[in-house]
Amino acid sequence: xxxxxxxxxxxxxxxxxxxxxxxxxxxxxxxxxxxxxxxxxxxxxxxxxxxxxxxxxxxxxxxxxxxxxxxxxxxxxxxxxxxxxxxxxxxxxxxxxxxxxxxxxxxxxxxxxxxxxxxxxxxxxxxxxxxxxxxxxxxxxxxxxxxxxxxxxxxxxxxxxxxxxxxxxxxxxxxxxxxxxxxxxxxxxxxxxxxxxxxxxxxxxxxxxxxxxxxxxxxxxxxxxxxxxxxxxxxxxxxxxxxxxxxxxxxxxxxxxxxxxxxxxxxxxxxxxxxxxxxxxxxxxxxxxxxxxxxxxxxxxxxxxxxxxxxxxxxxxxxxxxxxxxxxxxxxxxxxxxxxxxxxxxxxxxxxxxxxxxxxxxxxxxxxxxxxx
Length: 373
What we know:
15 helices; 373 residues; 12% strand; 2 domains
């Protein structure tokens, strides 16, 4: 019998956004090794996620029993030494070295947040499936989505206030820090800037772990008809945020996972980003990402070649905005394109029409050349 144990991040487990990483690693490892996935267990988690995924309160017993037996532990060091970015490729090369693919019986454990989202990209369908099949998710998603005008841009705003989040003192830098509060004025300014640029073609929905004056004010100003869902919302909120055309993020793993699951852009709090030699990065404070040849270093080298005002300006996934700053021009361009694409008239599947000249090679080539000059 072959088992892969995706270990919870601590004795009692962590927030859903954090636990997604070892869960995704466990799925990938189980596929590579042709093994049964166990965990991460939810029974001890103080947030009671066992209700969402309808698992036993005692599911931790199996996870804890298996890790007490002789097993192979794939660690962050093993991942780094593999030289791979993709977690599947990393654990496959490790498994070959240990001869695991020839064994009939073994237990392998994976854990931690090392490797980040780049490592688990191929686990996105798995995570989507788990979220959509969780308790109350489909009902909650439908109730919100059915109220939206699908011809308008849907902007998800995540405002985090509770838990172990810290409010910085005046003058204290936010650079490279996580689990910190974002001033409410930043959210309000970002929403107002969108309204000023796009008018009533943009619609908002606000997500939070708990209410507060800043949250109430944002809802009052930009979505006064918003109502609270009656069921479990931890998973359905992630699904809705991932489906949005734009995410205005908090500095949390929850916002990070929503952006990871989505193919659309997101807006980040500029004072939190690490800035080195004119380049912003989200993970630039990490020792591994400061090394020559790291993913952050390679990205910065390439991005330095981009000129302001070029076509690339509107092709980034993540954008940043300062407090009281202007909304990123490139992001506005991208959102305007998304708005045009939402028009049913542009969709053949929904009785839309397509001009015949789009299929004429000579005219199409001429238009392509004009667009690049």
